[in-house]
Amino acid sequence: MVATSFRTVTAVILWLTVLHCVASAEEPVRVVGTVSPLSDIVRKIGGRHVVVSTVLAPGVYPSEYVFREGNLGRMKGTELVIRIGEGGDPWSDRLIAAAGPGAMIINAARREDLAVVSRFAGSREPGVAGSSIPQLYVWLDPRIVRDRIAPAILQALIEMRPSWAADFRSNSRRFFFELSRMDNEAGALLAQMPPKPFMAQTGAWSFFFHRYGLMPVEVIEPDEKAEISAERMSRMIARGRLAGVRLIFRNHRPPSRPLAQIAKRLDAAIMPLGVMGNEHPGMMGGTYLEMMQLNIRKLLVAFH
């Protein structure tokens, strides 16, 4: 009886040891993200079991992508590609082709997200088009990350490395609670703030504004490559004065000339918000969650 029990325990220990060795022998999942925030979300769930590289450096926008032959070579052996999708990073198709047919693809954006871009990212003036590449920066809505993007990543990683499923699920649960806490606190605090009219430099923060019930009086540069006429600038300034705008959100770069002129004429403060990762000194080396938390703090200060 004792001998049988000992043999059983020994067999279980040997089986667990073999299982651990098999899991340890597996290579980390090789992942390529097109933009820094999506890459960082994969790291949150994959932990030490993923090796993630990113096509665009933090602070670089999809419309600024410059093709390099080395990017194609880097795709070889890639098992998972996470991209914006739906035209948000159209150059990614070529990179995916270089990865080969075995690579899994996650599109962060969906077709219905284009409606949010259309509502928020365009100018309030008829006939002024938005950006030629839709600004589908869906990660700026923490609930989209929590309820759509993170579960898709979790499922893909488990399919590719089922022996590490417990680690992936544990990381995912922790990330879920972090996102939920941040979203709940931001929603409650912003709901207490009195409405304050503002303008936005671009439509980059459409999903952020949409989630928290904010609407810019005007998007100054719906297409960053298009010139702004003197007539249109005058109309924007008139609308800003009528609405009482004293706040303009911009990206991390120095304010463009039209933006600076409008801010001066309206006597408006210019507040930078993060979009593509650690663009600002306050978030250098920061994660996706840190970028979002800094954005929320800046919003609360601006609307106070």
Question: Would you write up a description of this structure?
Answer:
This protein has helices spanning 2-25, 36-46, 69-74, 92-99, 113-120, 142-160, 165-192, 206-211, 230-243, 257-266, 288-303, and strands at 29-33, 50-54, 80-83, 104-107, 199-200, 247-250, 269-272. The protein is α/β, with parallel strands linked by helices. The protein has a domain at 108-304: Rossmann fold. The strands form two sheets. It has a four-stranded parallel beta sheet, covered by helices on one side. A three-stranded parallel beta sheet has the order 5-6-7, with helices on one face. α6 packs antiparallel against α7, α7 runs parallel beside α11 (288-303) and α9 packs parallel to α10. It is globular and about 60 Å long.
Descriptive tags:
304 residues; alpha/beta; Rossmann fold; three-stranded parallel β-sheet; 11 helices; 7 strands; 49% helix
